[in-house]
Amino acid sequence: MMKLKSPPVNSLSLELLTEFAISLEKLENNRACRGVIITSSVPKIFSSGLDITEMCGKSMEHYTEFWRAVQEIWLRVYSSSMVTVAAVNGSSPAGGCLIALSCDYRIMAENPKFSIGLNEAQLGIVAPFWFKDTFVNVVGHRIAERSLQLGSLHSAPEAHKLGLVDELVPEEKLMEKAAAVMAQWLALPDHARQLTKTMMRKPVVDRLVAHREEDIKNFVTFISKESIQKSLRMYMEMLKKRKS
Ligand SMILES: CCCC/C=C/CC(=O)SCCNC(=O)CCNC(=O)[C@H](O)C(C)(C)COP(=O)(O)OP(=O)(O)OC[C@H]1O[C@@H](n2cnc3c(N)ncnc32)[C@H](O)[C@@H]1OP(=O)(O)O
């Protein structure tokens, strides 16, 4: 099991992304490890997505390093040879949702206050093509298109209805259910499951691998724009105001 632990909201900072990638690599290289449950140790939050402070007021070099780390975590989770189950035990906007979408199966705590979705548009930013591809591959084109354009965050019941999460279970049953799903997936021979997973996911993975440097350049150019920086600053202010 892998538990995201970066209070208060598990925002995906460069440090957390790097630790996460190293832990995944270790598990991937351990032949005895055939599956991983990804969850959070922060109450009520799975992950608040990318750490916005990593994308605000920093240098081009920093944005480059940060975006490479974001790409890396997606590539590792999405193309993992292990069975990956997301036990979504709290809200999971944007990058947090991407982590869950990249797993093989998603189980979410049945709490209507928890929400999940790719809400980038609400921040005035655009989800890159590989976020979009991952989303489309889970929920289909129409639902993804509407949800992405509106930057929707879906409540747990709504997310289940849309197919964004596979199952809802009472919060106290989440880990038990995740273990049961893992056992069910691990009952199959690894090679058949892994080859099938590769067949299904390879086109999307290959697309980023082929355009990785171009994608970094696009991100750095986009995020460095004063208008985008302003949107991000305003969003952070809104988060702080909402709190007080
Ligand atoms: C080409 C560009 C593509 C770039 C792609 C980006 C994808 C992303 O992931 S962008 C990030 C999107 N994330 C969000 O919109 C989530 C924002 N956060 C929330 O909605 C809420 O914080 C929460 C529902 C996750 C939790 O709510 P809660 O009431 O428990 O906590 P808060 O008081 O709101 O937050 C506590 C603390 O944490 C700061 N914070 C929250 N989220 C982030 C974040 N993603 N990055 C950095 N910091 C974050 C928040 O401002 C509070 O800080 P202070 O205690 O200093 O006020």
Helix content: 55-70%
Total domain count: 1
* Neighbour order of strands in the largest sheet: 1-2-4-6-9
Shape: globular
- What's the average pLDDT? 97
Number of strands: 9
CATH topology: 2-enoyl-CoA Hydratase, Chain A, domain 1
Question: Total helix count?
Answer: 10
**Biggest sheet record:** 5 strands, parallel
Spell out the CATH superfamily.
2-enoyl-CoA Hydratase, Chain A, domain 1
CATH architecture, by name, is Alpha-Beta Complex
Any ligands, ions or cofactors bound here, and which? ligand LG6FSS7D
State the low-pLDDT regions, or none. none
Going by helix content, strand content and strand pairing, the class is alpha/beta
Whole-Å distance between the termini? 35 Å
Q: Please write the CATH class name.
A: Alpha Beta
Q: What fraction of the residues are assigned to beta strands by DSSP? A: 5-15%
Helix-strand sequence? EHEEHEEHEEHHEHEHHHH
- Gyration radius, in Å: 17 Å
Pfam family, one: ECH_1
Pathway: Lipid metabolism; fatty acid beta-oxidation
Protein name: Enoyl-CoA delta isomerase 1, mitochondrial
Organism: Zosterops lateralis melanops
